[in-house]
Design a protein that fits this description.
Rossmann fold; 7 strands; seven-stranded parallel sheet; alpha/beta; about 20% strand; 5 helices
């Protein structure tokens, strides 16, 4: 049996709204798909909306997905999550999502997403935004392709 080394693959967090509009859903799906095609591991909050669409895109492209959940049960994850990590710490898990990624792509979102953007800034992570908060330090992107390219560039 051949072992697959995934420790050195880039991990990119996709964060965003739990109830996005159709455009943001499609964008999240495309971002997840493109990340998987580039060999990146998708990290997200593991629930619905942007998280689920990004995970669906990644899975359909053969990628690996990690969901860091706010609750206490791994079975709360959406069906496209390969590795569900229950934390039992609610929104405090947002820092864990960001810490477990080399870069972050924000799509849509409200205050939970804003907190993840803040954590990304605090921890010095590159943060790319598509149709999300417009704040200092966030790199705007206009297409899923541009967001993925920006996220994967200069990863150590």
């Amino acid at each position: 049996m051949e072992l697959i080394d995934i420790r050195n693959r880039p991990r990119i967090a996709v964060i965003g709204g739990n109830n996005p509009d159709e455009k943001s859903r499609k964008t999240a799906y495309e971002v997840g798909k493109l990340l998987a095609e580039k060999g990146a591991i998708l990290v997200c909050g593991g629930l619905g909306g942007v998280m689920e669409e990004a995970a669906r895109g990644a899975k359909e492209a053969g990628g690996l997905t990690i969901g860091i959940l706010p609750g206490t049960r791994p079975d709360e994850a959406n069906r496209f999550i390969d590795l569900a990590i229950a934390t039992g710490i609610g929104y405090n898990r947002n820092s864990m999502v960001v810490l477990n990624a080399s870069a972050v792509i924000a799509i849509d979102g409200e205050y939970g997403t804003l907190s993840e953007i803040a954590y990304a800034r605090i921890f010095g992570k590159k943060i790319i935004g598509l149709n999300t908060w417009n704040i200092k330090g966030l790199i705007p992107a206009w297409t899923p392709e541009e967001a993925v390219e920006l996220a994967l560039s200069d990863i150590k």
